[in-house]
Design a protein that fits this description.
By secondary structure, the chain is an alpha/beta fold. It has two domains: about 160 residues, nicotinate phosphoribosyltransferase (Alpha-Beta Barrel); about 200 residues, nicotinate phosphoribosyltransferase (Alpha-Beta Barrel), CATH 3.20.140.10. The chain has 17 helices and eleven strands. The strands form two sheets. A six-stranded parallel sheet has the order 5-4-9-8-7-6. A five-stranded antiparallel sheet has the order 2-3-1-10-11. β8, α15 and β9 form a beta-alpha-beta unit. α3 packs antiparallel against α4 and α10 packs across α11. It is globular, with a radius of gyration of 20 Å.
């Protein structure tokens, strides 16, 4: 069927594959649980629950094609045994359940099982929820406004004379209005932005439009290490060390906000400052984050000009350009823009997430610099984690 939303297992973000390879080699026995949440108030998803189930059923029938496996095999950091494993892979339908939640209009989606076999659920499931919702609530929406907004952003960048090295990537798979609109966005960026457009997080889009797939690690990786490492306090260090063990210096952008910036900087010592290519910002004030990270590099005798700061927290183009101007000539900067590219159509975007909440039977959590992004289903564990990492109370 070609009218289904997800028709290829490559239609996901690159960091799912980079994390999945670490799971295969370092944590093949890990068991996890993911939970869906819609943060948008007053959204009723329940009328579309059967459509969502049908789309997920179809997703679980998909297999990687030989052409797709060859594409992955040609990535320098992907190992051949991982591609061989993907040749046998499918998403197990028995590991995911869609139901009705306790609140009015709420639905629940839970994935539970081996991390290795459930890690690829998150991104396509979120894309499915988005597209099912928008094709029902905004039927036959005219894309004229979306195209106008997209072209306005592109023209804003192309007209700037002081940002020759400004680089953006498209990061919007999980929040996209639709697959068709996503394709148009990437195609338009590739055609009209020249060297300002450096790639996409979506592997299928990168393959089809001959651009670079981008991504390293996500929050779930550092969260899982809370249960997989030797002790909780060392879990962030353990996660970074296991990443380095797997990739030996490749894919060197560290995620900085699973425990907040203070805890990240305490653990990101001179060894990691030198080993990793840079860090990614995903919550809190981007200007403060950048200034503190540059000062941290200097305090650890590392020249910030050699490092890359990746900004990806709910960005729009004017904010990204302002950040670029602030740090111009002081370090390398790059920007991952998601919802503002793939779901800026003149109607409100959905705020949906699907986060890991348990690993090996133990609760795990992300404690963000933005309180609304904190997600954990065990208040006692969250309180303990805050104590261990010397984080302020909620």
């Amino acid at each position: 069927m070609t009218d289904m939303i997800i028709t290829s297992l490559l239609d996901t973000d690159l960091y799912k594959f980079s994390m999945m390879q670490v799971v295969l080699h370092q944590f093949p026995g890990a068991q996890v649980e993911y939970r869906f949440k819609c943060r948008s108030k007053g959204v009723n998803l329940r009328p579309y629950i059967n459509e969502i189930r049908e789309e997920i059923h179809h997703l679980c029938q998909l297999r990687f094609t030989e052409d797709e496996l060859d594409y992955l095999r040609n990535m320098r950091f992907i190992k051949s045994d991982f591609v061989d494993f993907l040749g046998l892979f499918h998403l197990p339908e028995k590991c995911i359940e869609v139901g009705e939640g306790p609140e009015e209009g709420e639905i629940t989606i839970e994935a539970k099982g081996p991390w290795l076999h459930t890690i690829l659920f998150e991104i396509p499931v979120l894309a499915i929820v988005n597209e099912v919702y928008f094709r029902n609530v905004h039927k036959n929406l005219d894309w004229t406004e979306g195209r106008r907004r997209l072209n306005e952003k592109i023209e804003l960048v192309n007209a700037s004379t002081d940002l020759k090295s400004f680089k953006i990537s498209e990061y919007g798979t999980r929040r996209r209005f639709s697959k068709a609109w996503h394709h148009e966005v990437v195609k338009t960026l590739k055609e009209k932005m020249g060297n300002h457009f450096v790639g996409t997080s979506n592997v299928l889009m990168a393959k089809e439009y001959n651009t670079t797939p981008l991504g390293t690690m996500g929050h779930e990786y550092l969260q899982a290490c809370q249960a997989l490492g030797p002790r909780l306090r060392d879990s962030q260090v353990f996660a970074l060390e296991m990443w380095a063990k797997e990739y030996r210096g490749d894919l060197g952008i560290a995620l900085s906000d699973v425990y907040g910036l203070n805890a990240f900087l305490r653990d990101f010592d001179m060894y990691f400052c030198k080993l990793f290519d840079g860090a990614r910002h995903d919550s809190g004030d981007p200007f403060e984050w950048g200034e503190r990270l540059l000062a941290h590099y200097q305090a650890n005798r590392v020249d910030p000009i050699s490092k890359t700061l990746v900004f990806s927290n709910n960005l729009n183009f004017p904010t990204a350009m302002e950040i670029a101007r602030r740090f111009s000539g002081r370090c390398k900067v790059s920007f991952g823009i998601g919802t503002n590219l793939t779901n800026d159509m003149g109607v409100p975007a959905l705020q949906v997430v699907m986060k890991m909440v348990r690993c090996n039977g133990q609760p795990v959590a992300k404690v963000s610099d933005e309180p609304e992004k904190t997600m954990c289903d065990d208040p006692a564990y969250l309180s303990y984690l805050r104590h261990v990492f010397d984080l302020p109370a909620a």
